[in-house]
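ugh ok fine here u go
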Amino acid sequence: MSTNGISAALKLQFGLINHENRYLTAEAFGFKINASGNSMKKKQIWTLEQDPDSQVVFLRSHLGRYLSSDKDGKVRCEEEVPNTDCRFLIVMQSDGRWALQSEPYLRYFGGSEEYLSCFAQTIGESELWALHLALHPQANLLSVARKRYAHLSTQEDEISMDSNIPWGVDSLITLVYLEGKYSLKTCDNRFLKNDGKLVMEHGPNTSFTLELKSGKLAFKDCEGKYLSPNGPTGTLKSGRCTRPGKDELFDLEESHPQVVFQAANKRYVSIRVCISANQDDETDMETFQMEIDKETKKCMFRTNGGNYWTLVTHGGILSSATEIEENTMFDIEWLGRRIALKASNGKYVCTKKNGQLAAVSDSLGEDEQFVLKLINRPILVLRGENGFVCHHKNSNTLHGSRSFYDIFTLLFSDGGYQIKSGNQKFWYVSSSGLVCTDGDKPEDFFFEFVEYGRVGIKAQNGKYLRGDQGGTLMGDGLSVNASSLWEH
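structure:
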């Protein structure tokens, strides 16, 4: 876990691309592997597991089986529990590509199509693999050495690594993947240059090679130097190092949705004086992190001080809980532009005359309804069960199953959201159910945070956005299920 317990470091998931620009693929039939994949879908995603006592890594397929090599170089992917043959070492190359070396037999893994083996004694072009992260690219960035998070500092006009907790929109970092390299984008759509400046245009000085060391990430610039925090505010820029040490290492952590609530009295819910709807501004005191329990799908609301909302005697709601328990869990009812919260006593949370919140209502009226506004996703990347959402090359529609993603702009509209494409046009659902991207007028969509890390998106026609069998994004889903849930 990280130092503050907000989130655990994300498990590294990625695709491996060989010298022929094909992805390493784990087939369901016979646990066979090949390097034939044209794009990164479920079968091309691998999870890295690090041996805690050494530099050894294990590669686990989407089927939960581990890559292995025997003494004759024969490669399989069928072990349910990693054994000696599953132990590999990553030999990092100067261009960021990997060579995978069998630890027990010291041979290198490579090849093409069905002809894969781990028998090469030296590293050639066919033994080199490029890393393509499969994580959702919007995350919080933690400096391993400083134990501080990155955020956009508008005073200094830089990315500073000096936050104790990743709070608010400024802490959102988006990784942009282009031609095998990564760029870091701030919440206001600017790229980080290697000299620490923030610029609108992408170029060689904003492109970094992603390297891995002991399960941590390092970013190498075009001059062979590494990003690190510098000075008292931890200005993120390239230092002098040409080899990554602890100062140059980072973790990516999941960025939970952070929200503000507006009650029926038009005031924001705040923790300044107990929990009350009594403020007109949106500050850290009015921002709450939504954490959805994986099993029960109930929601907890964390304050920037690390406490949770909790139900107390007589239906009162306080932000005093330090541990997750039954009284800190709430059910959310999604009502289009509004939401309602039900506490563990089965009562609805309402806003009393003095602004205080209390779970005392048996029925749903105006005082039991809130506007929920997502504040830490001004730019939106969506990933479904089969891949990312991006523009179709030759039409006004969208794919929902690609290896690469497009970045969209999210605009809040009285409990709904409008989604804008790079061409400054808006998303809408056509009469045939297609999600189109060339609207002149904005159309509202409604976000329902129903599962851990995933959102259902309802269109104005009352249907959910889903990816169909061919990968096209449709606005005709009848319910929230695997095809209509999106990492965001």
